[in-house]
Structure formats: C-alpha cells, structure tokens
Specification:
Length: about 625
C-alpha cells in the first residue's frame, strides 16, 4: 500500500528541518569510515595492548590483521532483572564469532540504574541524566577505535536510549542490539493494580503489598508490563537494529542464546561486507518508523523525550508536533498493560512484533524502503525465529492475531489514532498518553492543587484534602530543577480519586512512568517552572482545563497568567534536589540541560562561546512554541 500522506508529509518536514545537521553527521561518519579499519590504524604497541589479556587463539586471529573484531558494550549488573542475563552473553558472543573467524571483546560497561528501585526515592532524580552518562560511557568504550563492528547489550528505560546515542557517535560501524527478553508472567496485572490501590488507601499492609510485588517481579528478565523498557525493544525492532522478533524471547532459553549468537555472527558479516552501518540504518525514515511503532502499541511517554535526543545523535531533528501528527493517523493495534490487562508475553504469543510490523507496513504507516541490520527493506521483520533440532530457523509470523483482545489488524484497530497527543495553551506544551484513558476521562476542568514535591501531594491525598474534582499540579520537577524524575508513585492515589467518581487530572513539568495509565496526565510541560515556565505562575484554586481530545492545556478565566509574579521554589526543596544520593555530581548537567521537547540532554552543547556562556545547538522549530488556547 502507498505510504500514508501524513507520514510522508511529516517525514519530508523532518528531512528538510534536519538537512544541515544530518549532512554534518554523515560527513563525520563518512570520514571515520574512509580512514580505514580500526585495527589497521593502531600501532603495533596499541594493538598489543588491546589484546594482551586475550586467549592465545584470539591473539593469533587478531595478528592476522584482516579478521573483524567486535566491540561489546554491556549494561550488565545483577540487580536489574532485565540485565542479569547479560552476565553470560559475552562468552556466547565470543564463541559465536570464533566460529566465523573473528574476535570479540567487551569494550566497556555502562551504568544501568533501575527506575523500579528508585521510584519515589532521591535516586530517581539521576534517572534521566543516567541516559546521557550511558551515552558518554558508550563513547568511552568505543573510542579505543579497535573495532570493526559493535554489539549493544541493554534493555531498560534509559539504557537503550543511552547506548543508541553513544553508538551513533561511531555510526561508521555496523551496530547490532541484543536484548535479554522478558521474565515469565507473574500474577495478573489487574490483581497487582488492585493491591496497590488498596495499599494507597491503607486497606492492606506492607507485607501484603510486598507479596504482590514479588509475585509480579520474580525472575531474570524484563518486567512484563509495556513500559519504557519494552517500548525500547519495540523501537529497536522497527528501527532495524535487532534481529527480527528477538525482543520478547525469554532469557533462560536455548532460543535466546541462539539469537544472541546469530546477532554476533551478523555483526561480523556486516563488518566484512561494509553494509548496514548504523549511520545508514538510523535515518529520518527509520526514526519515523520507531515513532509509529511506539504509537501503534501505546508505548511509553518517556520516549517523547528520549526519541528526540536519540534522533539528534544521528543529526535528525524531531519534535512533539511531529509525534502528534503521526499519532493522528496511526492505528492503535495493541492493548498491553497498563493499556490493557495482558502482558508482553501474551502480546508476543498473540502475534507480537512480526504481526505489528507487517500490519503497519501493509497499511502504509511505516517506511518499507529502509536499511536494517538484515539488509535493505523492512520485510525481514515480518518473520519470527524458532529452534528446530537445535538450529535457528526463521518463518513468517502469524497472518492473523491469535487474540484480538490483545492485538488487532490495522483494518480493525482498537482506535484509529495512536496513544500519544500534544496538548498546549497558556500553560505551555505537554504530552499526554491517552491509550489507557477512557474517553469520558479525557476532558477535565477543575481547580488546581499546586505542590512542589510528590511527598507533599501524597500527604494531601492521605489527609483527604484531594477528595474532590481536582487538577493536581506538581512543578519544579523539570530537568533543570531536579533532573526530571518519574512520578509514578502518585499513580495509585490519582487512580483512587478517579475511581471515587471525581474528575481528576495531573499536570507536571516532570515525567510519569511508562507504567502509568488511566488518569489523564499532561506531562513534560515545557518550558519548565524553574526556567520561568507558565506553571510557575499557577496558584491553588485556578481553574485548569485539560482537553486531550482537542489538544488544550490552559487556565480558565485568567486574562494574563504571566503577569503574575513567578513562584519561587522553597529553599528546602531546592537544596534537597541537588545534594545527596549522588545528585551533587550532576550539578553541571542541571545547568546546561535542554528542554524536555529538545530531548532533555547535555550531549549536544556547543563549547563555551566568546561571551562566556554555553549555548545548546538551536533547534529550528524551537523559538516560542507556547500558544494561546
């Protein structure tokens, strides 16, 4: 089918907007490629250092001078269940590449923090910044310039975006991402949500809550809800950086190890052929495909930030208007918790990524003429793997969904639009995820209750002060203020208020987790309050209208919001968000970080100018995007 005209229009606009930055990026990648293979540029002493700790067999291979060397960047630690399986991956990779006459080395490791552990804790204020730290660590790992291809081992929230950004700095190489897969299903998600809501109301004790959570998060592998981690995997598939349908294979299976070995061998093949370098795989078209994949499956709102930074690493400039317009023509094909009751294992069983890829391609919602690690075209991603007599075999994915309550064709979607919308008005620009919000809850007009910390908001909930129609405004949560933490700890309380029949909405310059669901939440409000954004002018009792249907976020009855004096963050909260739990190490990040719509990143800043200040690279579309409702 012909490409959807809106998809074509948005892609053309992104291409034109990115013309200068994309050309500069490709120029640098071409220069790196043309300078020759890494191993050929190193002196004998350099090369000897690079292999001093390797086996005799690998040293002999390396001395040949013509055999590819694969650099592995791993986010392994054994506190993250999703990353624990990576402990064994390097040896699987080494063995696989030896079979095809190559070598592989762990080039370096990156930090990998768990948002599930730090939710509601001070450490969450480092979560978003950890993405850029991971990008930098990836750059450090690969800067040895001893590699002909690279493999990225990562799964979770900030880790994959960070690996993606860092690897693109070495986009002259082919780069293959190898995931670990989800844990088996635990207790039903509806039961987990019920216990959380009861605990928020004081109806069950902590022991009951802990037993429920352990029943959900119980083994190696990714958490099984469709949050940021699993959204990452969907995007890596449709972005052409995985082997097909590898995202949701359990870690402790023979198939997972076979896929990891196959990914390593594919990296060697690409190094030898010079094809599918990452700079060519990640293009304006593949970025659009990644956005559409996210929207079609109701993926995480965190990617309204991450994707901007990820694309920028390849010289591609996107914004929330692009995402909003793509969402308007993207069919919602999946219902996975928190946008439904099923988990990613049920999604995969119903047809999974192969089904989604084929449906989007046949409906004209994604570009099929893209470069992937499998070669030219997206069609390879309509297949899925299996092990037959110990051999990895690829076959076509299912032609029809095996469970239409979880997965539907583009001809009969759950919704004609995707799961993400832009809302804007005199309060700024924000995004809202509506795929889990019932239509009757998408328009809220109610008095504001304004807070600076989620702890204060939760205390007001516990004290019964929010038992009414209310728009909870939480400000000074942006990247400059405190690193833009996720505020998922508020979700159970907001859900309880909504279930009581109140009209409830949430407005913040912070983030919400990819696990957040049924309460309407206008998040990532830009510009943020600490930078003088409109939220700093809001007062308790102001009537706020959030209309996700028409894209409005505004005050009602306030003639000139900005004529009011700016609220000043309390000294205690300002100090608390900059010191302790490692936060004092990231002061420079808070000073130079870009806005949420520019990716909330520190990775693309110019050097200090003659005037003595640091300017971030201007985005042609970011002048003053605040409009009157």
């Amino acid at each position: 089918m012909a490409l959807n005209p809106v998809v074509a229009e948005v892609t053309a606009r992104i291409t034109e907007r990115s013309r200068a930055t994309r050309a500069d990026y490709l120029r640098r990648m071409d220069a790196a490629r043309d300078s020759g293979a890494g191993r050929a540029k190193l002196s004998c002493a350099n090369w000897a250092h690079a292999f001093a700790g390797q086996t005799i067999a690998d040293k002999l291979t390396a001395m040949d001078g013509s055999k590819p060397n694969v650099g592995v960047v791993t986010a392994y630690n054994d506190m993250l269940s999703a990353h624990q399986p990576f402990e064994r991956f390097p040896e699987v990779i080494r063995k696989a590449v030896r079979e095809v006459g190559a070598t592989a080395q762990v080039a370096g490791g990156t930090p990998a923090m768990c948002d599930g552990v730090t939710q509601g804790r001070p450490g969450m204020e480092l979560s978003l910044f950890s993405r850029d730290a991971i990008a930098m660590a990836t750059g450090v790992a690969l800067t040895h310039d001893a590699f002909d291809a690279a493999m990225m081992l990562g799964v979770c929230d900030k880790i994959v975006p960070g690996l993606f950004m860092g690897a693109l700095a070495f986009g002259h190489l082919p780069v293959v991402f190898a995931p670990a897969g989800p844990m088996p299903s635990g207790i039903p998600n509806a039961e987990k949500a019920r216990v959380r809501a009861e605990y928020a109301q004081g109806l069950v004790d902590r022991t009951t809550l802990l037993a429920s959570e352990i029943g959900s998060y119980h083994s190696p592998g990714t958490c099984t809800f469709y949050g940021t981690a699993n959204s990452n995997q969907m995007m890596m598939e449709l972005g052409g950086l995985h082997l097909p349908s590898t995202a949701f294979v359990h870690p402790e299976t023979g198939l997972r190890d076979a896929l990891t070995a196959a990914a390593a061998k594919r990296a060697v093949e690409l190094a030898r052929s010079g094809e599918s370098r990452m700079a060519d795989v990640v293009s304006e078209k593949s970025i659009v495909n990644m956005i559409v994949a996210l929207l079609a499956t109701g993926g995480s709102t965190n990617h309204a930030i991450h994707l901007v930074a990820m694309a920028r690493a390849a010289g591609v400039l996107i914004d929330w208007t692009d995402m909003d317009q793509l969402s308007s023509v993207t069919p919602l094909l999946a219902r996975v918790y928190p946008n439904g009751s099923a988990d990613v294992n049920a999604f995969q069983a119903a047809g999974g990524v192969a089904f989604v890829a084929r449906e989007l391609a046949q409906a004209g919602n994604i570009h099929t003429d893209v470069v992937t690690v499998m070669g030219q075209g997206i069609e390879a991603y309509f297949q899925e793997p299996s092990l037959i007599d110990g051999e990895l075999v690829w076959r076509d994915g299912v032609a029809e969904s095996l469970d239409r309550d979880i997965l539907r064709p583009a001809s009969d979607p759950f919704d004609r639009e995707g799961g993400l919308r832009l809302v804007q008005g005199d309060l700024g620009r924000a995004v809202i995820k509506i795929s889990a919000v019932k239509p009757e809850n998408r328009i809220v007009e109610a008095p504001a209750a304004v807070f600076e910390t989620q702890e204060d908001a939760l205390q007001a909930f516990k004290d019964g002060k929010l038992n009414r129609d209310v728009v909870l405004v939480l400000r000074f949560q942006g990247p400059k203020a405190n690193g833009m933490p996720e505020l998922h700890s508020l979700s159970p309380a907001l859900s309880v208020l909504q279930d009581k029949g109140f009209k409830v909405a949430f407005v913040t310059d912070g983030r919400m987790s990819g696990a957040s669901g049924k309460t309407p939440a206008a998040i990532h409000v830009s510009p943020e309050a600490l930078a003088g954004g409109p939220l700093a002018h809001v007062k308790d009792g102001d009537i706020i209208r959030l209309d996700a249907e028409t894209g409005v976020l505004t005050t009602v009855g306030v003639s000139d919001l900005t004529a009011r004096p700016l609220a000043v963050r309390s000294t205690a909260n300002a100090h608390g968000s900059s010191w302790g739990y490692g936060r004092e190490l990231f002061g420079a990040f808070r000073q130079v970080v870009t806005t949420a719509e520019e990716g909330a990143t520190v990775c693309f800043a110019f050097p200090v100018s003659p005037g003595g200040h640091t300017d971030t690279l201007p985005h042609p579309n970011f002048v003053d995007r605040t409009v009157d409702a």
